[in-house]
Structures are given as structure tokens and as C-alpha cells.
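Before the break, one more example. Copy the sequence into your notebook; we will annotate it together after we see the structure.
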Amino acid sequence: MRFVVGSLSYLIFPLITNLWHFVVLAFRGSEPDVAKDYLTDLYLNPTEFPDKGMVHGGFFAALEGQVWDKIQQTLSSEKLKNKPLWITGHSLGAGLSTIASAHLGPHGLYDFGSPRVGDSTFQASFEGKNVHRFANCSDLVTHLPPKDLLDYQHMGTLHYFDADSNYHLSPSNIFMYLDQFRAQTFYPQRKLVIPFLSKNLFLRSFADHNVINYSYGIWKALHK
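Here is what the structure looks like once it is written out:
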């Protein structure tokens, strides 16, 4: 089931096999031709999440009103209400999925290219839960908003893809810093990036945010 409310698009679909019987709520990332997506991203003013600290105001507001009513209505239907719920998203969708998870308490949250969503109190509300965050090397969005700005934090276990798309579980900060430095230094030569002439993105930080690169990292890890 696909829903579009305003500019927000999300999917809710049941997955049923002989072994599994569960529901996935998936949020898409920002779309380049949808101005409202960028306004959502840029509205950094913290908003109180009841009893769970402060969160990104744009993400919180995007899941209010008609959008949230539709999600709740669908998930509470007779066919879906008793099934385990899993939530996921990429980019803006990752921010929205984190807010949705704080509301719904799913069996698991898997985010890709997620920005920081809430403060330290909000982060603590996710401790001990099945929460996973995938970051692809120099992906700029995973560094936003800056950690020291309004105490924005990441949630869950970190799964990291390095400059060569190799998978690492919870690597050290120094490992990631050196890996990202190497990636950004050699990217222009490896990709033959020529401003206004090359089809490749000028900065590795933007290229690494593409969901296709996340898919490749997962594919590579699964085929080792």
C-alpha cells in the first residue's frame, strides 16, 4: 500500500511467507523537485517530544495531522494491527522513521543515511531497543545537524560502509575519520570529476548519500 499525503510519501506493506508474518513502514528520502522536503530538513528548531526530550522540529511536524492519522488508521486495521512492525527510511525518510518509531515502538528500526534527529534525552529513550543506523563513508547527511548544535544525536547501532563499500560494525571514530579523508582526497581523481562537464557529483560527501550506494554496500556484505 503506497500513500502520498502532501509531499510525504511512505509505504506500508505486509510481508507474509511460511516463516514471516510482519509489516514494514518505509519512508522515502527527499525528492529534488519537492521544495517542502527541503523546508522540512532545514527547520532545525527543537520541538518537545512528550516525555522523550527534544527533537528536530521539521521531522516532528511532518508526521502530524493528516499524515499521522493515515498511518495510524492503516496500522490499526484488522489485517495489520496484530503483526510485528518494522520501520525503515533513507535520508529525510530516516529522520521521519525515527520519529515514527518513538511513537509506535516497533520490533525494529533500520535507517539509511540518517541525519541526527533528537537530543541526548531522546537518544536515551532508544537505548536497549532494536535500532540500527547505516552510514556510507562520507555521506554528508549523516553529519547533519552538527552534533554540537542544539545537542543533536544519532540513535542505535552503527553499521558503516567504508570508501570501498566494505562493511564495518561500530568502527572507531578515528577509523572513520581516516577512511573519509582518504575517500574525499582521491575521489576527484578516481571519478574524473570536472565541474560543469562531468556527470559525477563534485564532492564524495554528496555521492555517498545516494541510496544506490547503500544498496551496493549491503549487497557486497551479503556476498562475501
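The CA atoms of residues 40 and 58 lie 4 Å apart. The longest strand covers residues 8-16. Try to locate both features in your own notes.
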